[in-house]
Design brief:
Diaminopimelate Epimerase, Chain A, domain 1, 283 residues, globular, single chain, 5 helices
């Protein structure tokens, strides 16, 4: 078991793994024994994901027990907010679970539904839920859909020079995004008939991330739906420079997101609450 609590000192010791999915990086914890509640993990997440004083990551993912599936995935954005699904994180946590158990096919539950994955030595192919809630917007060249979380997809012609932080923040806080209770903002540009480039401003992180799995799916589906690309599968070049592949049928169902899910390092950290009842790392 990778989570233990030393009650005498009121210090919680956590063992973790660090994974990246095409540059989208996560702190992963094995809590199949359900030792720590979801709410406590939410409180700990900003400390664990802090890139200057913690482990660093775009989010925290915890393997939780499930009575009906291989596991339940708890996914928290780096600010501790609860999130439904993350495609790259889903691939990373599937790879981690495969290392723990030896399974090469897994099925897990999330707030956004049930997902399954096939794990090989080179990639993880994640079966996604069918996208839904397609909508036109009042934002120029922007379209909305939900691929496990909310996404605004914006077509651009100057993606390399684009100020993603400024424009992404503006659209993430637009009236339309607020009407959807928040949205990631994905900027896409055509490379050729089967490939696009994408850059993402991610809610909860409130910054540009090097990759976003559900955003990659949203960008690929929008590009195909709007005729920006005409061939499948759609190859998506993310900001890290790595490539992800998105395949789906002509009804935009049976979506599969494929790409690398790489182990980086593992470690152990100690946390306790300070006088302000806030979790801090014990040096």
């Amino acid at each position: 078991m990778n989570v233990t609590t030393a009650v005498k000192k009121m210090i919680t010791t956590i063992k973790f793994e660090k994974y990246t999915g095409a540059g989208n990086d996560f702190v992963l914890i094995d809590d199949r024994d359900d030792k720590i509640s979801d709410s406590i993990f939410s409180e700990m997440t900003p400390v664990l994901c802090d890139r200057n004083f913690g482990i660093g990551g775009d989010g925290l993912m915890v393997i939780k027990p499930s009575s009906t599936h291989d596991f339940r995935m708890l996914y928290l954005n780096s600010d501790g907010s609860l999130a439904g699904m993350c495609g790259n994180g889903g691939r990373c946590i599937s790879a981690f679970f495969s290392v723990l158990t030896g399974k090469t096919e897994v099925r897990f539950e999330t707030l956004s539904g049930t997902y399954s994955a096939k794990i090989t030595t080179t990639e993880v192919a994640l079966s996604m839920i069918d996208p839904y809630d397609f909508a036109e917007t009042n934002i120029p060249n922007a379209f909305y859909l939900n691929t496990g979380t909310q996404h605004l997809v914006v077509m651009k012609t100057n993606l390399i020079e684009l100020d993603v932080l400024s424009e992404g923040r503006k659209l993430r806080n637009s009236d339309f995004a607020k009407s959807k209770k928040g949205a990631n903002v994905n900027f896409i540009q055509k490379i050729d008939e089967s490939a696009i480039r994408i850059r993402t401003y991610e809610k909860g992180v409130e910054a540009e991330t090097l990759a976003c799995g559900t955003g990659t799916v949203a960008g690929a589906i929008t590009a195909y739906q709007k005729g920006i690309v005409t061939q499948k599968p759609v190859i998506v070049k993310v900001q890290s420079g790595q490539l992800l592949t998105v395949n789906f049928n002509d009804e935009f169902k049976n979506v599969i997101l494929s790409g690398p899910a790489d182990y980086l390092f593992s470690g152990e950290c100690n946390l306790k609450k300070n006088d302000q009842n806030t979790w801090i790392l014990v040096r």
